[in-house]
Amino acid sequence: MDDQDKLIDYDSQGEESSFSDSQTHGAFNSHFIESVQPLIELIDSLRLIGIDKDIDLPSIAVVGDQSSGKSSVLEALSGVALPRGSGIVTRCPLELKLRKLKKGPWSGTISYSGGHNETFYDPLKVDNLVREAQNKLAGSKVGICDKLISLEISSPDVCDLTLIDLPGITRVPVHDQPDDIGDQIKNLILKYIAKSETIILVVVPCNVDIATTEALRMAQDVDPEGFRTLAILTKPDLIDRGAEIDVLNIVQGKVIPLSKGYIIVRCRGQSDINNKIPLSKAMEMENNFFRNHRYFSSLLNDGKASTRCLADNLTKELVDHIKKSLPYIIEQIQTKLLSVQRELKNYEQGPPLEEELMGPFLSDIIMEFSDQINELGKTGHSKEKNIHALLRPVFKKWDIYLRGTEISFTARVNEMVDKYNEMHRGRELLTFSEFCEFECVIKDHVAALQEPAMETLKHVREIVQNAFREICYLSFDLYPPLKYIVSKMINDIQSKQETKVEKRIKEFIHMEQLVFTQDKVLQQKLNDSDIPQKTGMDSSDENLYDDDDTIFSSKGCALLDSRNLVPDKLVLYYEIIYQRLTDYVPMLIILFMLKDAAKTLRHQMLELRNGADVVKLLSEDSERGRRRAELKQRLERLTQAQELISNRL
């Protein structure tokens, strides 16, 4: 006979009960086993760090129909009064952690999402604190919530046990309950009992047909062999006379066999509560009830009756379950740890979780971004591309446009020469020409080049700004606030630089309307052309040139001063304009829109680090960032769980 059987036998012989009348807050004095508490605390510690999000942990889930006596059973086990009443009383999963003390005062701690954690020392507060927690999580009406409430009770008068109490199963909505409240509750229950690591504790009243009980049916659906199911029969004092044999057959597994079997208990009823019968007295009354019962006394002797027997069996079942599950838990943690580590390698390194390390991290990514911008400004290189490969076609288009206008310019000058006497001659004598009239043609033609030059500028701005933004997005894609700030910075800088370039292009176009070039420059153009041959000039005639710098003399100029030569000569001058504009506009744009813009951006980025809200700048919002953060949290949980098991075993 083991210790448990000796303890049961001791009471069954009518000797002094192990329950003390002085126990006002404890339901019983469970046999203390040194190896029990560390194992249960290990699982609770693993659940506390959230490892149950990654693997299933051994647990006991308590399920039952409404008014099945579930609350009374938990009261008897915990020694405290839990919320009672009609309708749905348990509206959130309640994790009830019982911790046996060798000695010391009673204490309780309730915690739930939102950071609430409260320790108290009066067991009478349990009811109100649990109701208050449910109201905060599930609302003050009749809805349910899947957020867990944890209630830990430490006392010399409880056993070492952890149970999860789930809402009672209901079928018909009442009191403004949602129409699908029954489905909501069943889905919540299935979330727990479907896990292979969960022991299912089904509470069934003796005075109902067990075969039709919804709680047992749900347990059978997920545990058809009954390997994980332990049934508790309640309210044996309410069964009809003559039905005792039927109940006895159920407990003995003759109706619906369960490998973990059945235990029958008699807890405090509403009349006992109204009469203010303490739990310790109720436990004594329960023992006497079974001891003196005509049919059920044998169950007490067999260890299948009484709350104390239930507590001892549950503790044993849970500990055995934990021992069997530990190798699998260790294996699962190791497997998932390796999987998370591998997946995490596929994600870019994000910001550190520690706030004090975020500043240096921000500096590093800003410097890396600035180096890329600097390289883009100096050489044009960005990743696998060179920005000049994109700019060159734009500048070529500008050059082709300028070249193309030479034809229209020549045509306009020829038209002017043809109609000079009729339309353009002023006060000058016949056969004479006024230079200012030809100058106006040049001015008008050059002025018309301003708009295409501005279009070239806008096109280049788009290319450069996109290149800057691409580096910004690649560098700061995980950090939307930082990406937004830098993107806006790029836009502002480009806008300011564009304004500067616009001003200088307008100035240059305005200068080109002065119609000026050094004589030597134009002389070279004339020498290289066929215009002198058209006049019959002999280039070897020294009288045609001045002695100092080979510029045409007055005689040479006179020979060239013919109206029919004007178009050819103006085209030569236009080539000078073309050469200046085709180079100057691109050079101006590259200097301000690329090189100076890159330099300004680098300076502003370095200033951004000073006095910045680092946490805000590095906050992640993208799916990739959320996944990386989730993986890092999982890695931390799994590593912590691995260390926890290693230290406890």
Automatic annotation (TrEMBL):
Region Disordered, residue ranges: 1-23
Localization annotation: Cytoplasm
Entries under InterPro entries matching the protein: Dynamin (IPR022812), Dynamin_GTPase (IPR001401), Dynamin_GTPase_CS (IPR019762), Dynamin_N (IPR045063), Dynamin_stalk (IPR000375), G_DYNAMIN_dom (IPR030381), GED (IPR003130), GED_dom (IPR020850)
Gene3D superfamilies found in the cross-reference section: Dynamin, middle domain, P-loop containing nucleotide triphosphate hydrolases
Positions of the GED domain: 563-649
GO biological process entries: defense response to virus; receptor internalization; synaptic vesicle budding from presynaptic endocytic zone membrane
All residue ranges annotated as the Dynamin-type G domain in the record: 54-327
CDD domains from the UniProt entry: DLP_1 (cd08771)
Keyword field: Cytoplasm, GTP-binding, Nucleotide-binding
GO cellular component: cytoplasm; microtubule; nucleus; plasma membrane; presynapse
GO MF term list: GTP binding; GTPase activity; microtubule binding
PANTHER family xrefs: DYNAMIN (PTHR11566), INTERFERON-INDUCED GTP-BINDING PROTEIN MX-RELATED (PTHR11566:SF225)
Family: Belongs to the TRAFAC class dynamin-like GTPase superfamily. Dynamin/Fzo/YdjA family.
Name listed for the protein in its UniProt record: Uncharacterized protein
Native organism: Culter alburnus (Topmouth culter)
Organism lineage string: Eukaryota, Metazoa, Chordata, Craniata, Vertebrata
